[in-house]
C-alpha cells in the first residue's frame, strides 16, 4: 500500500499543473489554497475508501487526472457485462512482469477516466487495450516496428519525415466505432501508446509498466521527434471527412497529458528500487543486444528513464549512494561519442540473411488462397510459401479466436534481387468448431534474401 504522503505529492503537482494552465488562476496564493483543498479532499476519499462518484461530464481535468493517480489502489470488481464479454475478466492469473491479476487489471480498466481513455467499455476494444495473453507483447512489438523505421532514418536530411498515419474503422480496426455507431480513427502509434498507458495506471508498480513508461519516454526523445511527423496535427474532431472518421478525444491533448501524468506518478508512486532496477536492466540489455535497433532503443529508454524519472524521484537523494551503477552508465552514455555510435548504428540497415524457403505441410492446401489474398495488399508479389505444418490456434482465455498460418511472400527489391517477407493469415472462429474464410491478418518482422 502506498503511503498517503506519496499520493499527496502527486496530487499537489496535478493541482498546480492544471491550475497554472488557467490564466484566471495564476496567482500563487490562490493556487496553493486550491492545492491544499484538493489534496485534503482526495486524501479523505482514500482514507475513507468511499465509492461515491459525480457525473462524469462535470469533472474538471484536474479531477480526472487525480482519479487516474489513485486508480491502482481501488479494489474494483468486474461488472456482469465484462464477465460476459471477456473470458479473462475473472481470471486470477498474474501475467508475467505484472503484479496484478487479469481480473484486477481489467476491473480497473472499467474505471479509467473517459477523458483520457475514451474507448469504453474496454472489452469492446480488444486491440486498443491489447487484451488477452496473446496480445500481451503486441504493444511492445508495435513500438519496436515503429522504432525500426524511425531509428533507421537519418536525421538532418532532405528525405522528408517518417509519417505516422491514421488507423480507423475501415482500415483493419473494425472495433473503432463509438456506442452510437460513429466510425472512429486514431493515430497509428496509439496502438501501443494507448494500451501501455492503460496498463500503467492499473498496475504502476511492476516491471511491465516501468518498461512501458521508459519506451514511451524514448518515443518522445529528440531523436524520434526529429524525423517523425503525423499526417494530421490534430487529435480531435474530424479525422478523415472522406471516410467519415472522427477522433474519440474531446480536445486533442489527452495522449500527451496521459503520458506526462505517467511520468509524474512514477516519480512518487512507483517504488524507487523498481525504477532503479529497470534502468539497470535497460542498460545491461543494451550491452548484450546485437540487433542495432533494439540496442539503440534500450539505450535511449535507459537514459530517459534515468534522467526524467529516477533523478527526479522524491526518494532519489536518500538513495543516491545505492545508485552508482546507474550513474556510471548514464555518465558514460549521456550525449557522448559512444552514445552517438550506438544510436547511429541503427541507421545502417544490415543485409538480410539468405535462405531457402521450405514449404510446410499446409502449403499445398493453402498456397493459392494465400497468394490471391496477399496480392490484394501487394500486387507485386511473385509467389508465396506457406511455412506451417499445422494451424496455430489462438485463444482468448479458453475460447478460440482464430487459427493462423505464416507464409513467405516473395518479390523483387529495388535492385532486382529476390526477397521474401513473412505475413500471417487466419480464419476467424465461428463457434461450434467451425472457422470462417481465410483472410489477411498482419505483417511479420523478418525479411530474407531468397536462395535460388
Describe this structure in words.
The protein is α+β, with helices and mostly antiparallel strands. It contains 16 helices and 12 strands. It has 3 domains: 74 residues, no CATH class; 262 residues, no CATH class; 97 residues, no CATH class. Helix 1 packs antiparallel against helix 3, helix 5 crosses helix 7 and helix 12 packs across helix 14. The longest helix has 21 residues. It is globular. About 8% of the residues have low confidence.
Give structural attributes:
Transglycosylase SLT domain-containing protein, two-stranded parallel ribbon, signal, alpha+beta, 16% strand, six-stranded mixed sheet
Q: What order do the helices and strands follow?
A: HHHHHHEEEHHHEEEHHHHHHEHEEEEE
Percentage of β-strand residues:
15-25%
Q: Rg to the nearest angstrom?
A: 24 Å
Give the helix proportion (percent range).
40-55%
Instruction: Count the beta strands.
Output: 12
Q: Largest sheet, if any?
A: 6 strands, mixed
Which residue ranges are poorly predicted, with pLDDT under 50 across at least 5 consecutive positions?
A: 18-54
Mean pLDDT figure: 88
Distance between the termini: 62 Å
Tally of separate domains: 3
Shape: globular
Oligomer: single chain
Structural class: alpha+beta
Q: Count of helices?
A: 16
Keywords: Signal
Signal peptide: 1-26
Protein name: Transglycosylase SLT domain-containing protein
Amino acid at each position: 500500500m502506498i503511503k498517503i504522503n506519496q499520493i499527496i505529492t502527486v496530487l499537489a503537482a496535478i493541482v498546480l499543473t492544471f491550475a497554472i494552465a488557467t490564466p484566471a488562476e495564476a496567482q500563487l496564493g490562490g493556487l496553493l489554497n486550491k492545492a491544499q483543498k484538493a489534496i485534503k479532499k482526495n486524501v479523505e476519499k482514500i482514507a475513507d475508501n468511499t465509492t461515491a462518484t459525480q457525473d462524469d461530464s462535470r469533472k474538471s481535468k484536474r479531477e480526472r487526472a487525480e482519479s487516474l493517480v489513485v486508480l491502482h489502489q481501488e479494489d474494483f470488481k468486474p461488472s456482469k457485462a465484462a464477465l460476459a464479454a471477456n473470458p479473462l475478466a475473472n481470471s486470477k492469473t498474474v501475467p508475467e512482469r505484472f503484479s496484478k491479476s487479469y481480473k484486477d487489471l481489467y476491473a480497473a480498466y472499467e474505471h479509467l477516466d473517459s477523458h483520457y481513455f475514451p474507448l469504453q467499455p474496454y472489452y469492446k476494444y480488444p486491440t486498443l487495450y491489447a487484451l488477452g495473453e496473446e496480445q500481451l507483447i503486441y504493444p511492445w512489438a508495435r513500438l519496436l516496428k515503429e522504432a525500426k523505421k524511425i531509428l533507421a532514418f537519418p536525421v538532418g536530411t532532405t528525405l522528408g519525415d517518417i509519417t505516422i498515419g491514421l488507423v480507423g474503422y475501415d482500415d483493419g480496426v473494425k472495433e473503432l466505432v463509438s456506442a452510437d455507431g460513429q466510425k472512429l480513427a486514431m493515430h497509428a502509434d496509439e496502438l501501443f501508446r494507448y494500451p501501455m498507458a492503460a496498463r500503467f495506471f492499473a498496475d504502476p508498480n511492476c516491471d511491465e509498466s516501468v518498461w512501458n513508461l521508459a519506451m514511451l519516454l524514448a518515443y518522445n526523445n529528440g531523436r524520434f521527434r526529429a524525423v517523425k511527423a503525423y499526417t494530421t496535427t490534430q487529435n480531435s474532431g474530424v479525422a478523415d471527412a472522406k471516410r467519415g472518421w472522427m477522433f474519440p478525444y474531446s480536445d486533442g491533448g489527452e495522449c500527451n497529458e496521459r503520458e506526462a501524468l505517467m511520468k509524474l506518478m512514477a516519480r512518487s508512486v512507483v517504488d524507487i528500487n523498481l525504477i532503479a532496477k529497470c534502468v539497470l536492466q535497460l542498460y545491461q540489455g543494451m550491452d548484450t543486444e546485437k540487433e542495432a535497433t533494439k540496442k539503440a532503443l534500450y539505450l535511449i529508454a535507459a537514459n530517459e528513464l534515468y534522467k526524467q524519472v529516477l533523478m527526479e524521484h522524491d526518494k532519489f537523494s536518500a538513495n543516491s549512494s545505492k545508485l552508482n551503477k546507474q550513474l556510471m552508465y548514464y555518465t558514460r552514455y549521456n550525449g557522448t561519442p559512444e552514445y552517438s555510435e550506438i544510436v547511429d548504428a541503427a541507421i545502417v540497415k544490415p543485409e538480410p540473411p539468405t535462405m531457402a524457403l521450405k514449404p510446410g505441410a499446409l502449403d499445398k492446401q493453402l498456397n493459392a488462397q494465400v497468394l490471391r489474398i496477399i496480392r490484394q495488399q501487394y500486387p507485386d508479389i511473385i509467389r508465396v510459401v506457406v511455412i506451417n505444418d499445422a494451424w496455430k490456434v489462438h485463444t482468448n482465455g479458453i475460447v478460440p479466436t482464430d487459427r493462423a498460418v505464416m507464409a513467405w511472400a516473395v518479390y523483387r527489391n529495388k535492385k532486382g534481387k529476390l526477397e521474401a517477407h513473412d505475413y500471417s493469415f487466419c480464419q476467424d472462429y465461428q463457434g461450434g468448431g467451425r472457422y470462417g474464410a481465410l483472410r489477411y491478418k498482419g505483417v511479420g518482422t523478418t525479411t530474407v534474401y531468397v536462395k535460388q
